[in-house]
Each structure stands twice: as structure tokens, then as C-alpha cells.
TrEMBL record:
Family stated for the protein in its record: Belongs to the palmitoyl-protein thioesterase family.
Keywords: Disulfide bond, Glycoprotein, Hydrolase, Membrane, Signal, Transmembrane, Transmembrane helix
Protein name: Palmitoyl-protein thioesterase 1
EC number, as in UniProt: 3.1.2.22
Residue stretches spanning the membrane: 364-384
Annotated organism of origin: Moesziomyces aphidis (Pseudozyma aphidis)
Length: 406
């Protein structure tokens, strides 16, 4: 009988653990629906272009039951949406995305988010400024997190791009450009002291979300650090993004005009990596906090800008996107989850998504659950015995008293 109960408990614990943990261990049919997904397209693309539609239907095929929403600046016209990739005020566009996502029922329990190119820094702005509903994993492909130090070349037939380019020649830090030309709002060139001073004076998008101004917004760091994972992918042959390492938050170091030759950066053409940059060292936006729990991933994809080959896809899909939602998305569960991730990464250097990390997580979960069930069962048995004994005692006391015959 004891052996039977122990065996039964083992099975119970095992099934709860497998169901509550990650996808790899469980057959698909048993799983709850995958986390919903929001995507934000890149410059020159639109929410429902042929490419985006094909991408979304492939995802739905790969992950049955997946809900996908593509952020748009104009739900009635895809051509208008594409135009807004070049023209508009980014802060307004982010706010519009905030309003849009807040109204979608499917997203209210939280969602994963993929930003393509400039859509990546826009979704990051969503997380930092709004984040209602909450983003779980944020994935950015070839995004310009530290801005661009040069404007990307236009395709030979891309008229909109040429019009925007011509407008930019009129000045990047004019009030007009900073509120009407999208690329100007993440243009940041530390190599040119004059342009950089103008940037610090005029920019209200990339400077703001990177907390690079005179005031910093603590909410930004808090919200970004609340992500489960922030996955940044860089393309090794990216020539569109200058420097390409902006996708990993690297940037050229700021040139100081008053410093002579001696004070110059010995290697001004080598961007300073994130972990040596002040945005990280001062933890201005929560990146260091994410990194401490192994939640900041810098992945390299082989190819030119936005050439997402199968090896690159495998770094994201089925790992951070398309994983089942367990319904454990409340604050306490998130806190426990983050604490566990921090401990695991801090002591072993493993992420929960790694195979070894997953096995370790499941083992610990299993042992914890097994002990909890054992202890509660023991407590119940004790309680039953105690009550039984007490009742027996009570029975003795409350039994019929001596009978007095009158
Ligand atoms: C910080 O950002 C949040 C979200 O955008 C905003 O509500 C708040 O007013 C900002 N705080 C400051 C001090 O600017
Ligand atoms: C440039 O360098 C000088 C001397 O190192 C320093 O006093 C000054 O504050 C710097 N200026 C900027 C804009 O960083
Ligand atoms: C764990 O975290 C503490 C405090 O943040 C840090 O001092 C320590 O070096 C970390 N250990 C490892 C192995 O990363």
C-alpha cells in the first residue's frame, strides 16, 4: 500500500512538472496554446505585405493555435502603413501601438514580440513606456538599438525611400526631421561632435528610450528588466545598419572635440561593446539586470540585413516564440521564475532554455513538488490521527455521566 501511494505521488509530481515546464519534454497535442505573438515590420515593409503574411502563416502552421498580430499604423491601408515606416513621429507611432495592443483580447495575458529592424527598437519603446499588456520575450532582428551613425542606402526603385532621403539632406536635427522623418529619430553619430551635440539637444526618441538625456526615467529600466528574455540578433554581413553592432547595443565612442590627438580613442572605428558602455555599466535601462539572470541574449546570424536563414530561425522559433503558455503568468510566478533563472545562471552559467538548464530545472521542480506532496500528506495523516484521538478522548468525557436515581 505504501509503495503504491509513493508510486502514485511520483507519477503525479512528474506529470505536473512536465506540464508546467518547457515545450521540449511534452508531446504537442497535450500542450496548452502557445503564447500569442506580436510582430512589428521593418522600414520599407508593411504589416500585411506578402512577405509578412507568408511569415505569419508559416508560424501558424509550425505552432498550431498561435495567435499573431502585426502592428500597423493604418489598419485601412497597407500602403499608408508602409509610408509611416518612413514618415511620421515615432513617439506617436509607439503610442498608437500601445493603444492598439491594449484593445486586443487575445494579448491580455501577455505575449511574445518580434521586431524586424527598426520595428525592434519601436517594440522596445512599447515595453519601456507602456507594456500593458506585458511582453514576455522580446526578440529583435537587426535592430538599431543605439541608433545609426549613417543613413541606409535606398533600393534602386524605392521612391518613398528616396523622398525621405532627400528630405533628410535638408538636415537631420531640424525640428521638422525630428518629428516627421522616422530614420532621423534614431540617427546618432558620436563620431561627429557637432552632430552629436545636436542629437543631445533635439532628439526625443532614441535618446529618450536609452535614457541618454539629462533626466532618466526609472520606469523604462523597470519595464525592460521585467522581460523574461530579451533576444537581440545581429547579422554578421549587415551593411544596412551602421554600425551593425547597434543590433547588440554597441556604438562608436563619443568624440570629444576639446581632447587633443592624445585623448582620442585609439580605435574610433571599433564600436564599444555593450558590456563596456555606460548604458550597461550605469544600468540606465535595465540591461545589466537582465544580463545578471541570463535573460539578455546576443545571437549572431549569418547573412546580410534581415536575411533570416534556417540556422537563424532556430535560435528563436520553438525556443522563445511558439512555446506553450502555462497560465502561470501572474506576478508571484514571474517573481519565482526570475529568481530561479538568476540563481541558475549565477551559479552554473546555464539558461533555462539550454538543455542542461532545462533538465536541472525539471529535476529541482520535481524534487520540490515531491517533497511538498509528501510533507502535506504526512501532515494530513497526522491531523487525521490527532482528530481521531481527540474525538476518542472527547467521547470518553462527554459520555453519559453517572446516573443518579432519584
Ligand atoms: C516615465 O515613463 C512613463 C511611461 O512612459 C511615464 O508615464 C512617466 O510620466 C515618465 N516619467 C518621467 C519622470 O518622465
Ligand atoms: C571633453 O574632455 C574634457 C577633458 O577631458 C572634459 O573636461 C569635457 O567635459 C569633455 N567634454 C565632453 C562633452 O564630454
Ligand atoms: C552571482 O551574483 C553576485 C551578486 O550579483 C556576484 O557578485 C557573483 O559574482 C555572481 N556569481 C557568478 C558565478 O556569476
Amino acid at each position: 500500500m505504501r509503495a503504491f501511494i509513493a508510486g502514485w505521488l511520483l507519477v503525479l509530481a512528474a506529470s505536473v512538472v512536465t506540464l508546467a515546464s518547457h515545450a521540449e519534454a511534452v508531446p504537442f497535442s497535450m500542450l496548452p496554446k502557445p503564447h500569442p505573438l506580436v510582430i512589428w515590420h521593418g522600414l520599407g515593409d508593411s504589416a500585411h505585405s506578402e512577405g509578412m503574411e507568408s511569415f505569419m502563416s508559416q508560424l501558424k502552421e509550425a505552432f498550431p493555435g498561435l495567435y499573431v498580430h502585426s502592428v500597423t499604423q493604418d489598419a485601412t491601408s497597407d500602403a499608408e502603413d508602409r509610408r509611416h515606416g518612413f514618415f511620421g513621429h515615432v513617439n506617436d507611432q509607439v503610442q498608437q501601438a500601445c493603444d492598439q495592443l491594449a484593445q486586443i483580447d487575445e494579448l491580455q495575458g501577455g505575449f511574445d514580440a518580434i521586431g524586424f529592424s527598426q520595428g525592434g527598437q519601436f517594440l522596445r519603446a512599447y515595453v519601456q513606456r507602456c507594456n500593458t499588456p506585458k511582453v514576455r520575450n522580446l526578440i529583435t532582428f537587426g535592430s538599431q538599438h543605439m541608433g545609426i551613425a549613417d543613413l541606409p542606402a535606398c533600393g534602386p526603385t524605392d521612391l518613398l525611400c528616396r523622398v525621405a532621403e532627400a528630405a533628410l539632406r535638408g538636415g537631420i536635427y531640424t525640428d521638422y526631421a525630428q518629428s516627421h522623418l522616422v530614420s532621423a529619430q534614431y540617427y546618432r553619430n558620436p563620431k561627429d561632435p557637432k552632430a552629436f551635440a545636436a542629437y543631445l539637444d533635439k532628439n526625443d526618441f532614441i535618446k529618450d528610450i536609452n535614457n541618454e538625456g539629462t533626466t532618466t526615467n526609472a520606469t523604462y529600466a523597470k519595464n525592460l528588466a521585467s522581460l523574461e528574455n530579451f533576444v537581440m540578433l545581429m547579422f554578421d554581413k549587415d551593411t544596412t545598419v551602421e554600425p551593425k553592432q547597434s543590433s547588440w547595443f554597441a556604438s562608436y565612442s563619443v568624440r570629444n572635440q576639446s581632447e587633443g590627438e592624445a585623448g582620442r580613442d585609439p580605435n574610433p572605428n571599433e564600436p564599444t561593446p555593450l558590456r563596456q558602455s555606460s548604458i550597461y555599466l550605469d544600468d540606465r535601462i535595465g540591461l545589466r539586470k537582465l544580463d545578471r539572470r541570463g535573460a539578455l541574449k546576443m545571437e549572431l546570424c549569418h547573412g546580410i540585413h534581415m536575411q533570416i536563414d534556417p540556422a537563424c530561425q532556430l535560435k528563436v522559433f520553438g525556443k522563445y516564440v511558439g512555446t506553450p503558455s502555462t497560465g502561470l503568468d501572474n506576478a508571484v510566478a514571474t517573481w519565482i521564475d526570475h529568481a530561479w533563472r538568476w540563481m541558475l545562471y549565477n551559479t552554473t552559467g546555464l539558461h533555462v532554455e539550454d538543455t542542461a538548464g532545462l533538465i536541472l530545472t525539471q529535476t529541482v521542480l520535481f524534487l520540490a513538488l515531491f517533497s511538498v506532496i509528501r510533507v502535506s500528506l504526512a501532515l494530513i495523516v497526522h491531523a487525521v490521527r490527532f482528530v481521531g484521538r481527540k474525538r476518542a478522548d472527547d467521547d470518553v468525557q462527554s459520555g453519559p455521566g453517572p446516573i443518579h436515581l432519584a
